[in-house]
Specification:
Elements (H helix, E strand, L loop, with lengths): L7 E12 L9 E18 L5 E3 L8 E3 L11 H10 L8 E8 L9 H16 L6 H16 L5 H8 L2 E5 L2 E5 L7 E6 L6 H14 L1 H24 L2 H18 L4 H12 L4 E5 L6 E6 L2 H13 L3 E5 L7 E2 L5
Parallel strand pairs: 3-5
Antiparallel strand pairs: 1-2, 1-12, 2-5, 2-6, 3-4, 6-7, 8-10, 8-11, 9-10
């Protein structure tokens, strides 16, 4: 897209869930951290009679026009929902030409769809001269997440909007200040894609059949999230790692593990990770591992890459959605 003085651009971060996925869907606590992988939406005004959307990561060299007669591919349904909600069918002199790009791997448990929604909503608010606040952006992004995930907890859109670290329980959040200067979070992508909605539905079916057993697992996960918040505040990295690994054991009891994730866990364990667990829905996607030694971290990353996995140290993003037009 050609950039000019009239362009508007906002970005929003992806996330890792440190504790509490799946349980959070049922109102239990979870802790999420925004990571410095971002989705970006750029808008320029166009004299076209309809909004248009470009998503070069998904559809290279293809532009979609949005009007009353067109329907976008299923992978763009949430984007289409946001645009139609925010641009009611009234005549205007300029329509947005929207381009969305993302550094966040899709279907990997890193909050890609939420970051796209947050960046798009923020950019459209600016384009339409709407004075919105973060709560309003977050609320609409949650509606977009429902299009994709069915019954999401709301944690992905919340962390993408506000950034940093949050303790999230029953749609109520509180900030956690996280010091990552003396530890290293490594994201390892198994490259096994999965559909969050499908995995959440499978777990729901297991819970419907054996509510008492599954809810007991959720209670244990709740306890881990509570202890995790205290350990993060203290900067007790060893305890954080232990709790991550305990959380992984409970997620495997829920049935959301995968042989490739198990391979990754064994590899990072050999390199003395303090803790490791899947992040997101499971059945593929990513493992997040915690280290406190840079040399061991790099050795683990090299081994993982040799085995064909994507692996990298991730920085925590203190910022949520931000105006990239102004950001230097």
């Amino acid at each position: 897209m050609d950039m000019d003085n009239e362009s508007i651009s906002y970005s929003a971060p992806g996330k890792i869930i440190l504790f509490g996925e799946h349980a959070v869907v049922y109102g239990y606590a979870a802790i999420a951290i925004a990571v410095e992988l971002r989705a970006k939406c750029t808008i320029v005004p166009s004299l076209s009679k309809n909004p248009s959307i470009l998503t070069p990561d998904l559809f290279p060299n293809k532009s979609f026009t949005i009007n009353k007669d067109t329907s976008l591919p299923s992978s763009l349904r949430a984007i289409e929902f946001v645009i139609r909600e925010m641009l009611p069918s009234k005549k205007r002199t300029q329509y947005p030409r929207i381009e969305i790009t993302s550094e966040i791997p899709p279907s990997a448990g890193l909050g890609s769809s939420a970051a796209v929604a947050v960046s798009l909503i923020s950019s459209l608010h600016a384009f339409l001269n709407i004075n919105s606040n973060l709560d309003e952006i977050n609320r609409m992004a949650f509606e977009a997440e429902k299009i994709i995930h069915g019954s999401p907890s709301g944690i992905d859109n919340t962390i993408s909007t506000f950034g940093g670290g949050i303790y999230y329980e029953n749609e109520v959040k509180r900030k956690i200040l996280i010091d990552d200067k003396s530890c290293f979070f490594v994201i390892v992508n198994s490259l096994i894609p999965r559909n969050t909605k499908d995995v959440v539905e499978k777990v729901k079916q297991r819970r419907d059949k054996n509510k008492q057993e599954i809810d007991q697992i959720y209670e244990e996960i709740q306890s881990i999230s509570t202890q995790g918040e205290m350990s993060l505040k203290k900067g007790d990295h060893e305890r954080i790692g232990t709790l991550m690994s305990e959380n992984q054991n409970l997620l495997e009891k829920l049935g959301v593990g995968h042989p490739e994730l198990t391979k990754i866990i064994r590899l990072v364990d050999k390199h003395d990770a303090l803790g490791r667990k899947l992040t997101g829905a499971g059945e593929g996607g990513c493992i997040v591992a915690l280290f406190d030694d840079y040399q061991k971290t790099q050795q683990a990353i090299n081994t993982l890459k040799e085995k064909g996995f994507q692996a990298f140290i991730t920085n925590i993003s203190s910022e949520g959605v931000r105006n990239e037009t102004e950001h230097v």
